Amino acid sequence: MCTGIKIDYNDGCVLGRTMDYESPMNYNGLYLPRNYNYAKDLMGRQLHSRYRMLGVCFHNRDPLKDGVNEHGLVGITNDFAGFNLYAQKVDTSKINLSSLDYFNYALANYKSVQELVDDLPNIHISTRNHKGEKAISPDFHFMFSDSTKRCIVVEPKSGDLICYENPYDVMTNSPGFGSHVRRLNKYIDMEKLEEFNASKDLPGGYDPVSRFIKAFYMTRRSKKASGYHEALSYFHSIMNAMTLPDGFIRNKKYDYTTYTRYICSYDTKGMEMTLKSDTNPMVYRLGFEDLVDMESRQAFFVDMEFRTHNLIGSK
């Protein structure tokens, strides 16, 4: 139930997401240094990072759910429910990974979207390792961007990873990206976007298709941002409209509700992240330049308590 968007500004872009989750989980910011062993591939070989990474993880564990690397490659993971999305065995001619570790692999090894796209034919995602044992390989798809502002979606299809150019700058969940685009074009006349009556006709639901259309329209109709902070402001305005309050959607699989746990963003120019929890309106920021120790794994936690600030004396 997550929504991702990208907002461009004059010499960069902001990409981020809502993290909507249906069961209890803790999350935190995480920095992973160069040469860090963040996982093993499905052949049992250790994977080490070539580049520094900064993002958000669950339960202080290494797989990032979204993040940025030191070269400004940014991305997010989203749930992508499907059937037989991945291969059932390894391919010894390729790099064998679980979907859980692919996102870290991308940030750890590529400087740009183009490098990632060029290497896709060499990547093999499987639900089993070289011994035939089950691997944790969730149903994910991915959105990436970089300093060129190029945006792509990477989705599993028939055992392969397929890349789609994403000029719409939006990603939600299933169905596939092509289906979202077809429904978007059926719903809105893209040549007469300014004539669309958003106050009356914009979908109000929170299913993936409705969220894709709504997020696209708000992103496309947002004012053009001249700089990073303006883009960040527009990003949070749109994301606030896409959030799910606790108790709004009852999950039928679990005895919990699905709601927005956090909103995060990543900047391709300044290589920094922002993070805001569902319970605290404060937006926290962290960049590589803020780190004193660049050689060690570091975890960062946000204050979850709702707080206010006195206007007297504030700047």
Description:
The chain is an alpha+beta fold and 315 residues long. It has one domain: Penicillin V Acylase, Chain A (4-Layer Sandwich), CATH 3.60.60. 20% of the residues lie in helices and 32% in strands. A hairpin with a 4-residue loop joins strand 16 (257-267) and strand 17. It has helices at 99-109, 113-119, 177-187, 198-201, 208-221, 228-242; strands at residues 3-9, 12-21, 27-32, 37-40, 46-48, 53-58, 64-69, 74-79, 95-97, 123-125, 140-145, 151-157, 160-165, 170-171, 249-250, 257-267, 272-277, 284-287, 298-300. An eight-stranded antiparallel sheet has the order 13-12-11-8-7-6-3-19, covered by helices on one side. Strands 1, 2, 14, 15, 16, 17 and 18 form a seven-stranded antiparallel sheet that branches. A two-stranded antiparallel sheet has the order 4-5. It has six helices and 19 strands.
